Structure formats: structure tokens, C-alpha cells
């Protein structure tokens, strides 16, 4: 898969997690609905922290998930798996219905189809973000990289391409929700005018609160914990996302979005620097050599 131009060589990209089944989205989900054996086929590469999605999600305390998909078969299968994993599930078949249900009962996470009739998933995601913070996992039948990146650009925290394993989706949901629960011993930290309070899930720049998505917050927190250290995109995907496999453009997009919120001049970043041939590092001094900052638009 073609990746955006990056300081890390293309040969270092890893395979994506959610594309190994070959049936159409409708066929895959119908099989899952009609045959328990088919549905329990081995899941694809997924977040490594929990092998049992049911055991993992029990720790989520019955979080509320809003599933938005105009295909009733897909919605039924996804809702069924999430329900059996211990989640409370609401369903919506289109964008306006999703926004109305979210307003009535704000969800802990949204599983959102990109290709909705009328108001598409990107616009639904934008409007949800305008109303308040909520993690979003985007579902798409498209294989085009631009669509996935566009979803991440509007604030989706993760995406899964149809056809997908319902069991993997449950693991992805748990992975995202787990990131919303701060570590018990996490303490506020700060550098270069930035402060992060993991317990409150609050970040500020020069005293002004930053509007960060779930993954942007986690990424900034991780970088602040490791000032001056360079990380490859694979390292960031493993440490911040909790994935051993995935599309590295996910990291690229989140770094670009985070720079747009913490840098004085995102086109010439001084805090989140590109390290050519490696990846990225956080420099609390903001004194990036010209060689590191040149071409920042590409990374």
C-alpha cells in the first residue's frame, strides 16, 4: 500500500490489521450472523493487550456504544458481538438518526460507517466532535488510502475496513476505550509551555486548553514522558495505539494534527520534530536544527 512521503523508509511499513478476509462485507457479516463457527474464525491481527474480548470488555463497566451503519445485517452482527461482550449498544441507520441518539444518550464510543446515505460518516464525525469529545472507530468498505486518511483527519481514532472480523472489532473497541481510562499513578507533566493531566484527560498550551482527540492526547502524553528520544512510527503505533500491526499512515496523520495544535508554526515544527530515517522526537527546548525541520510538511 502506498504511504505518504515520510522520513521512515517505505519498506518499514507494516501490514494493516483488518483486511485479510476476502468475502464481500455483506457476505462476511451474513456468515457471522448465521454460523457461529464462521463468526469464531481466528481474528485478524489486533491490539495485543487482551486475547479475550469478553474478559477485556467486562473491565469497561458496560460502556455505551453507538453503532451507525445503514446495512442492517452489518449493524445486527456488530451490535450482537458488542452486546455479548458486555457493552450497552444503541443503533442508528443514518447520520441524522445517529446525531439524535447521541444527543439523547451520549455514547462512550461510536462505531461509524463511512458510506452512509445522505449525511456521510465524515460529516457525522465532524458534528459529533463539535458537540463534545467521543472516540470514533470508522468502518469503510473502501480500499482507497485517501478515504482512511480523511477519516483520521476529521478526528476518527481508528478505522476498520470491511470485510472485518467482528471479534477483532470488539478488541479494537476495548483498545480505544482502555486509552480513556488513565493509569492509576499518572501525574500531571509539562514542558515547553505544554501541560498534560492524564487523570483529568486535559492538556493546555500556555494555560489555554487544547481540544485534542483521544489519540492526540495519548500521543502528546507519550512524547512528553520521553523528551529528546526519537521514535519510529512502528514504536509509536505499538506504545500509543497498543498495536503490533497497522497502517503507519495513522501515526503520520495524528502527528500532523497534533502539530497543528501545539506548534506555533506547524509548517516548521520545533517541538515535535521529524528525525529523518527514524521517525519523530519531542524537543522541549524547541531548538530544532534546520536539517531536522526542513520538509516538515511531509511528516
Characterize this entry briefly:
This protein has 299 residues and is an alpha/beta fold. Helices cover 39% and strands 16% of the residues.
In the predicted model, the low-confidence regions spanning at least 5 consecutive residues are 1-60, 290-298
Order of helices and strands: HHHEHEHEHEHEHEEEEHEHHEEH
Portion of residues within helices: 25-40%
> Strand tally, please?
12
Biggest beta-sheet profile: 5 strands, parallel
Q: Beta-sheet strand percentage?
A: 15-25%
The assigned structural class equals: alpha/beta
Query: What is the first-to-last residue Cα distance?
Result: 17 Å
Number of helices: 12
The whole-angstrom Rg is 19 Å
Global morphology: globular
- Which strands sit side by side, in order, in the main sheet? 2-1-3-4-5
Q: Taking all residues together, what is the mean pLDDT? A: 76
Task: Describe, in plain words, how this protein is organized in 3D.
The chain is of the alpha/beta class. Strands 2-1-3-4-5 form a five-stranded parallel β-sheet, sandwiched between helices. Strand 11 (272-275) and strand 12 form a beta hairpin. The chain is built from twelve helices and twelve strands.
Quick tags:
299 residues, alpha/beta, four-stranded antiparallel β-sheet, 12 helices, 39% helix, 16% strand, disordered N terminus, disordered C terminus
Topology:
Elements: H1 25-34, H2 36-39, H3 53-58, E1 64-68, H4 72-84, E2 88-92, H5 95-104, E3 109-113, H6 121-131, E4 136-140, H7 145-153, E5 158-161, H8 166-179, E6 189-191, E7 194-197, E8 202-205, E9 208-209, H9 214-225, E10 230-232, H10 233-241, H11 249-262, E11 272-275, E12 279-282, H12 290-293
Parallel strand pairs: 1-2, 1-3, 3-4, 4-5
Antiparallel strand pairs: 6-7, 7-8, 8-9, 10-12, 11-12
